[in-house]
Each structure stands twice: as C-alpha cells, then as structure tokens.
Amino acid sequence: MELRPFHIKDCALIALSSGIAVQTLREFREGLAIAPQASIYHHFWGRFLQPRFDEPEYNNDFAAWVYHGLHEKALAERLSVIDPTEFDDIEGLRSELLDRVEEHLDRSEWIPWSRADEQFYFLYSQILVMDTGISIHDPRLLTEAVGQMSLGSIFYHFIDARRRTPEKTDDFSAWLLDLGREYEALAMTVMAVDPYFSSLKEIRRVLFRCFSAFFREE
C-alpha cells in the first residue's frame, strides 16, 4: 500500500476587526460574552505569529490589556495562567474567562477603565495557507524537515491543526498514526507536547528532539 505523503504548508495570519471595542472592565466582560469564537481563539493563539522583540509579560492579549490598560495586576495574572489546551472547545474557554472577570468585578468597589487611546479591540484572524511544494514520503525524514520548517509551518501543522481537524490533534501525529502501529509511540509523544506556554521556535526544537531521538533509537 502506498503511503500518504505529508504535504508541508506554510501560513500567515491576517488580523481583522470584529467591531467590538471596550474601555471598562464591565464592557470587557460584555465583549467576552458576545465576541465571535474566532476572536477568543485569536487573542490566545494569534500572538504566536506576531513579531515580538521581547518576551511577553502575559500569555494572552486579554491579560496583557487588563494589566497595561486597566492596571489590574491581580486579574491579569489570573487570566494569564489560563491554558486554552485544557478546554474541549472555545465556549468552555470563554466561560472560564467570564467567570474570572465576574469574580473580580464582584470584589471591586469601582469599575476599572482605560484611557480612550488604550481601548481593547476584539480582533479575529483569517489564516492564509500557502503550499511550500515540499512533501515527505518517509517518516524518517521528519527530523530534517522539521528542523528546516518556517515558524508559519509549525503554527499551521502543530497549532492550527488542533482547531481544524476532526481529531483535534496536530498534523504530525495524525500522519504518523495513519502509517501504522510502529509509529504510535512517537505520535503519542508528539501529541503530549503542550504548545501554549512556549514559542514556535521552542516547539520546533522540541519536535526536532522527539523525531531525532525516536529514529536514532530505531
């Protein structure tokens, strides 16, 4: 039986406005409740492909604005530690965000607000997918291929795949499982990698080490 090749894709994100802008914490809570699911996703994952010149202080855009715009450090820290990979869907993640914001509002004696030029804009992203023209037919070539992949490719195959595929897993694991039981252990190892509290460069290094170690032992 001929093996299904792994086609390497690249991608970029185009940020678009949802039309929702907020200035106070109460407005922020209302925005969270009605924002499209794509906006919740964008503000957790879109940062991976945004150019940064330093390490972000907070792990998602919501926490960053609550700290820098509203100056509410305690809530910012509570929002920053939320790991979106722990939720089955965006609605579960939204519910957790709302719960933490509402708890903070209930304890606050006043409603925090930002300056007019520091409003929070709920954005969402459209993914632009590009075919690199590169295909892998032998899983033993994964080590070299991953080491040379762009960050856009890592995002598409390891992060975006978890949202767009029925199995909710990355493309590498799905392909390896299709190849047979001999690659099941490797697929499980890759699936266990939590991408969120990391960077695309670090994810690429971790994947490279996973594939390198497996095929070296083989």
Description:
With 218 residues, the chain is of the alpha+beta class. The chain folds into 2 domains: 12-124, no CATH class; 138-217, no CATH class. 50% of the residues lie in helices and 16% in strands. The protein is built from 10 helices and 2 strands. The chain has helices spanning 25-34, 37-45, 61-68, 73-80, 90-107, 142-148, 151-164, 171-179, 184-191, 200-217, and strands at residues 6-22, 120-136. The chain has a two-stranded antiparallel ribbon with strand order 1-2. Helix 1 (25-34) runs antiparallel to helix 5 (90-107), helix 6 (142-148) packs antiparallel against helix 10 (200-217) and helix 8 runs antiparallel to helix 9 (184-191). The radius of gyration is 20 Å and the shape is elongated. The two termini are 22 Å apart. The model has no long low-confidence stretch (mean pLDDT 93).
Structural topology:
Elements (H helix, E strand, L loop, with lengths): L5 E17 L2 H10 L2 H9 L15 H8 L4 H8 L9 H18 L12 E17 L5 H7 L2 H14 L6 H9 L4 H8 L8 H18 L1
Antiparallel strand pairs: 1-2
Offer a few descriptive terms.
elongated, alpha+beta, 2 domains, 218 residues, 50% helix
Number of helices: 10
Q: Can you give the helix content as a percent range? A: 40-55%
Q: Helix- and strand-based class?
A: alpha+beta
Largest sheet: 2 strands, antiparallel
Strand order of the largest sheet: 1-2
Distance between the termini: 22 Å
Strand content: 15-25%
Question: How many strands in all?
Answer: 2
Domain tally = 2
Q: Give the H and E element order.
A: EHHHHHEHHHHH
Whole-number radius of gyration?
Answer: 20 Å
Mean pLDDT: 93
- pLDDT under 50 segments (min length 5)? none
Q: Describe the global form.
A: elongated
Looking at how many chains there are and whether they match, the oligomeric state comes to single chain
